[in-house]
Amino acid sequence: MKYFATTAMALTLLATVSGTAISASSVGVTSAVNPDAFGIEPGKSNRKLILGKKVIFKERIRTSQKGLVQILLLDGSSFTVGPNSDLVIDEFVYDPVANTGKLTASLAKGAFRFIGGRLSKKSGAVKVKTPLALIGIRGAITNISFDPTNNQASCSLVFGDNCNVNGNTVYQPGYTAVASGSNGGSVNIAPTTSQQINTFQTLLSGPLGSTGGAFVQPTDQIVEESSVDEGNSDKSPKQNSKQGTPSTVQSTDANDVDDTLADNEQFVIPQVTRIQQRILFSGSTFTTGSGTVLNGAGIPSFNQSVEFSGNSTTTSAQTSAGIVSFTPVSNSTNSSISIPTTASTPFGVATGDVFIGVDDALVFHQLFANGDTDVPFYLIRGTETPEADLLGDGGVRTYKLAQDPRQQSIIPFASAAFGGGVPSGTSVDGISDFFVVEPNGADITDDTNKATTGAPVFLQASVSFDGNGDTQKSVGFLVAGSTKALVDENLDVRRRGSVRRIATENSFASDAAAQQIVEGPQEERFYGDDAEYFIIGSDINDALEVNQLFAADNLGLTVDDLADTTFHVAELDSETPLSGLSRSLTTITGYAAGTVEPQLPALAGPGNLPFTVRNVDPADVNLEFNAGLNELGGFIKVTDNGNDGVTLLAGTDPHVVSYQFSFGFEPGNTANFGQSAYIDDDRFGAAENEDLALSTVTTTDIPPGVTPPTQVVSPATETPRTYVVSSAVVNNAIPAGVATACSTCAFLKWGYWGTQFRSTDPTPAQGGERNDWVHLGTWVAGDLPTQGQLPASGTASYSGHAIASVARSNGVTLSQYHATGDLAVNWDFGSRSGTLAINNFDDIGTISGAISDPSGLATATNTFSGALTDGVTLFGNTTGSFASGPQTGNFPVAQGVIGNFDLSGTHSSGDAYNATGIYAGSSAAGLIP
């Protein structure tokens, strides 16, 4: 914390901190006035305000055409009230010890500038009422006005977090919200105009002829005859320099402000004597779950909370690992900063960065001993968020995550080995912020009453593609679930996802180290006035073990490659009330596709080749949402594209018929839940449901060609590693190419899914076990009408995108990657037939075919199907449905189109080729009669 020269006004405010009693009715003082500013105490006549006057609770401030007054409140807030204004300080309650309270004012007419103090940093603590609008202010400098002549109220955000006018929030400085209409129901947010800026500047500068409150204006002669220079500018630098340690100045009693103006301006610079800090050291060795001892793996294995002693230049402490010393740093700026720092540690001199939050709310050193990234060293200290401010406001918080400096991966919660196709320093649109949904009035660290308050949940996801074809790299990760798991030492949150380091390798993933919010020295986890900061990583203790690899044996990865403990500073970026978000989803259905990569060492040949899966019944992709719980759940059921249990085709598994993967809560049974988060209708994600019986594989134990086939349904034998994430969370990330994500398909929901799945295979050759996984499968869903609800005549055209996973082999090298294409559908509702084409797909060009409605049952969910081909040697099939959208008129029921497809055969290059994926499109022109 930095301390500055104090004025009499600041000293008056300091009286509250030092314990000096203040009048129960006092809210602050007038710090500057122009004549013709009056204060009217309740039940009393006007009194002219002069410098130093107390402002009384429920006092009305009125200014004339030339009047101007500045009011400084005890929390550091200030009002600068312009001419011809009428303002009442209705209520001001402030506890400087707990830093809590509230401020309410009423503006009957006129204008003022408000500079937020400590109270304004808390959501809902500062409100201004006008006859037309209720204005809320959060950590900001604002210009506020009400003009009764044109019946308009406005709030201009000059600097800081936000201001809110009748529920409409301005987050960007330089923008103004104006309420108008009979009841303020019309609110327009637009860039602040130069006229609005000039008007306020003129008002707050005071009209011509005003003197800033001076009854006798100083002239040149008065200045020359004064002795002010003798105490300052006329002295030499040596005479002006301060010697020794300045003494603390006694604050003026707030009750004496009317009669006394303190003139002492000495500095207050306390000494830094004790700093309580948490230390995370790196040990020279650590032990894996299998008992293997590794050297220099960089997993912190020493955890200690100590108090540093010293002065403002150097601090040091004796720990059980040795002496630690470093130079303390502080931050008085209005934003977080990162600067180089050094420290002496038991492992040598540590260099690195330090993250410093506003007013030192969080100070987090991230250092490396002797420059060795295998020997990290962490220091944590900060100001704990009051427990009362962890109560939920019923909104969504968005946090920015700082990159972990050791792992050099911009994918959160992942090491460089898990970075996939994301080089260090690359900007990737597919990496989301860290979202937290606050429940309504419940502690975000407690989900015991989630049935009534809604679960406190969080979500972060990353999807990235780098390159195309044989050189493509890809990565997809998800962390989601209850925030309680992030702070409860008996619970944890596991990362889900997978990586393909290059198209010619199998994908892989691990059950990543548990993610938790890391405790500080006094067991605090959230820092700042309103949980503006926290550190998320692995909550380190001496017994931390590295989680084991769940991947193919032929990748050559070591446990050391997978030591992916990361630390990220989370910094609050914005808050949005749930009332301002669309959260209307109930249940949507649709289509999914993906490529299964089996690892069956006991079986050679086709049983180890990747094979494609998709569904043909839209009911087999089910996503159910519960806005009250802030959660979702569902399942994806997919079938081997070439295996009907009778005929074995190339590229299919001879035993698999279908899979079902469940995630989030069980549909219809929210008590049986997994880790999930429903932010809004566009942003959501979920991990597996932990009930093993809900995730299954259906196999046949009779060789192909035998009739009838016998099918066996087997549940997962351990918790699947399943994830589902919507495309909007990862900013509609798709591989670079001709196709781009459909920009008019927001009403359709699509995204990615994957799993690592162990189960039983009844075929004796398999040894009774299967190990399958899917890397970045795709799904699409929407509100699907029945056949009878579709138009009976007319035509429509649709455009959008397709994305598919591809497996191709030249007989020596197997490559797996993702490819895109541009969707084009033409449909005749009268004949229930049309055409579907995917143009610019991969390096093939166009695949297309005729589609038609195979059933025509009025009560059945509408579907169409057809055969696809490139016209030469590739053949496949598609199944799809029309989806309802927001268009007006008689066409909303078929505004969109969704579906999946597969393709196999011989590529023009001679490669064996298999692909499967989804598509989404919308109709811009609507129904043409």
Describe this structure in words.
The N terminus is likely disordered. The protein is globular. The protein has six helices and 57 strands. The termini are far apart. The strands form eight sheets. The protein has a 15-stranded mixed sheet that branches. Strands 38, 39, 40, 41, 42, 43, 44, 45, 46, 47, 48 and 49 form a twelve-stranded antiparallel sheet that branches. Helix content is 4%, strand content 44%. The longest helix is centred in the N-terminal third of the chain and has 12 residues. It is mainly beta and 929 residues long.
Quick synopsis:
This protein has 929 residues and is mainly beta.
Q: What descriptors fit this protein?
A:
929 residues; mainly beta; 12-stranded antiparallel β-sheet; single chain; disordered N terminus; 15-stranded mixed β-sheet
Distance between the termini: 71 Å
The number of distinct helices, counting runs of at least 4 residues, comes to 6
The average pLDDT value, as a whole number, equals: 77
| Helix percent band | under 10%
Strand runs, count: 57
Largest sheet properties? 15 strands, mixed
Give Rg in angstroms: 33 Å
Class inferred from helices and paired strands: mainly beta
- Strand content range: 35-45%
The geometry reads as globular
Would you identify the regions where 5 or more consecutive residues have pLDDT less than 50? 1-25, 47-54, 235-272, 284-301, 541-554, 602-607, 643-650
